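Continuing from the previous page...

OK, I double-checked the sequence for V-type proton ATPase subunit a against my notes and this is the correct one:
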Amino acid sequence: MGSMFRSEEVALVQLFLPTAAAYTCVSRLGELGLVEFRDLNASVSAFQRRFVVDVRRCEELEKTFTFLQEEVRRAGLVLPPPEGRLPAPPPRDLLRIQEETERLAQELRDVRGNQQALRAQLHQLQLHAAVLRQGHEPQLAAAHTDGASERTPLLQAPGGPHQDLRVNFVAGAVEPHKAPALERLLWRACRGFLIASFRELEQPLEHPVTGEPATWMTFLISYWGEQIGQKIRKITDCFHCHVFPFLQQEEARLGALQQLQQQSQELQEVLGETERFLSQVLGRVLQLLPPGQVQVHKMKAVYLALNQCSVSTTHKCLIAEAWCSVRDLPALQEALRDSSLPGHRGCLRRGPLPGGQPRSLHHHHLPLPVCCDVRGCGPRAAHVPLRPGHGPCGEPAGCEGRAERDLADFLQGPLPAPAYGPVLHLHRLHLQRVLQSRHQHLPLGLECGRHGQPVWLEVRPRPQPGWGPRSTRSPDRPPLRCRSDAFLAQHTMLTLDPNVTGVFLGPYPFGIDPIWSLAANHLSFLNSFKMKMSVILGVVHMAFGVVLGVFNHVHFGQRHRLLLETLPELTFLLGLFGYLVFLVIYKWLCVWAARAASAPSILIHFINMFLFSHSPSNRLLYPRQEVVQATLVVLALAMVPILLLGTPLHLLHRHRRRLRRRPAGRQEENKAGLLDLPDASVNGWSSDEEKAGGLDDEEEAELVPSEVLMHQAIHTIEFCLGCVSNTASYLRLWALSLAHAQLSEVLWAMVMRIGLGLGREVGVAAVVLVPIFAAFAVMTVAILLVMEGLSAFLHALRLHWVEFQNKFYSGTGYKLSPFTFAATDD
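Thanks. Re-ran it with the corrected sequence; updated structure tokens here:
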């Protein structure tokens, strides 16, 4: 098992599975989810593997199951979940499942086909009956009973070529959206030698395929002449019209209508029996489909895993290689022993097997591995940034309380007016309990540090009420401990000047003196303090990330990286930005308020440090400051070529030395057995070889100098430029704290303070404060807690991902993906 701060130790093991028990063993491993199989047949196509026939059978069954599932969904039924955890069936059951499924699918196809044919036939009968029932009156194309038209000749010739022609009829139904085009085309093609009547059905009919109600347009066309009739039939066929025979006599049509109704009733009875039989077939499908899908999916997964195994030379067993957590090796051995057959027992061997990228596995009890997995999975046994990054960083923040300045004065001072006594006393007690509960964030941060949970709070602690203010007097004003309502009403703006005698009585024990909430210059003071604290925390946070990389180098046996990477990085970071933190703290400790007017500017000193210059108007903080600053800049710049060329040159030198010793090393390897090597040699993987181009074997792999130099150049540029940009990025803490403080003041001043000044009588105050406090509470929760909390969370998460984790967390590993049936069971 990995250490408390590292991922689980994962080993590469070799499994020897007897051919007769291989299926059972792999099925058992899938139920446990312990190992990730390696593909030992990567050069073999999928069609040439040992169990390709079984995989194809499973795929065919999956296609059949898909058809059955679509039929169940079409019938409006819901598949029930499988009962319990179903194991993968034995291989001999595959043929039985396939036969049952194919027989049921064929039966369902036949019944569904009969149902569709009966529905289509019933639909034709209903359409025919609707056409006869619509009441189209047959009209003669050659007769005009309403009078002569403008084209009718005034004198009819006695006899003629058309006197023996009779009128014919075409009746049918068409979809409504096709009726206008059909009518227009008939008129143009037949040149008006027809009479067409179109009517819409009063009641829609059920569609034979979709089952939805559909409207139809019936038509009756009277014409004379065979050529006209041929044109009409061709046009109706093009529009996919349903054409039915139409009798001219009324009695014949009524007789045909009765016959159609009788046929429809008979078809409905047959259709009902067919649908009842279909429901029985679907019932059997509901019983077979849920367990069958799970079993076939597991069976296919087992065969795919077996296809990744190689066959021994004697063809008596299958050899598999798999990644497994070291702490799960006893469970793996027990699973192989329990799933083996008598006389056919599987076994495993752990050794330095060649090939493959090592796998990484986080602790199972870490609640938020996705916080670091988003940037990529870390290398095997590398430092996990969850515990040192997300947990303890919240512990100092646990001392922080997000309290408004005027609210603090309201809680610690007397009541503003005697008239508000009973109401505000209860209100103040409630708010005091709220603020006191904020100090519970410290043990919460400690607990979150133990579990790796991120806690994003502020930077500034909430002072204990018992300490009392240390700045007790402002110029020409009585002590604030003795302040009264009348005094506060006359002096609403106070200015704290430490140079005035009696104002500064000593440093505050912890945090910011709450008396600054009454000062007129509190914003300028807190603004400068928060900005400097953000830089200090940022430099400490980044330095801590660089130090964490030391543990990775020591763990992987990369001692050279301590001198060629970690030491230059710390020198560069602390020599420039660590010196900036030193200047801030030194000025706080050595420059007193009496000399504040002539205090030197740290910003000008830091700029002159890079320019190797001096400003006469800006005095030095300590003697020989310019020499120290120039030395630090030169030392930091000297670390850049070491950081750029140190590791590549060392790797190239070591690689050439190995090439010279290769023959002797191969002889020793041939003499030594696989099991004679220690298990610790499995940990021979290092990020050196990963960064050098993914060296799988130290003796055989070839190091590519260009890739090593390119990788190190990218790392050097990213670190040196990142020190500048990352330090500036931590100023977001200053902006977030300033925005939160100002929003708190605005809510208190614009809501609660206005509400407190509306009424002077106790009853009036009670009535007024209820809705005002409700609005204040809602806005506080919505703006300060929800919106500001989400913003702080996102910014803090960004600082951990970009500014902190890139100092030691590479994210170049491969996450362990065990072979498991958990998703199938769910």
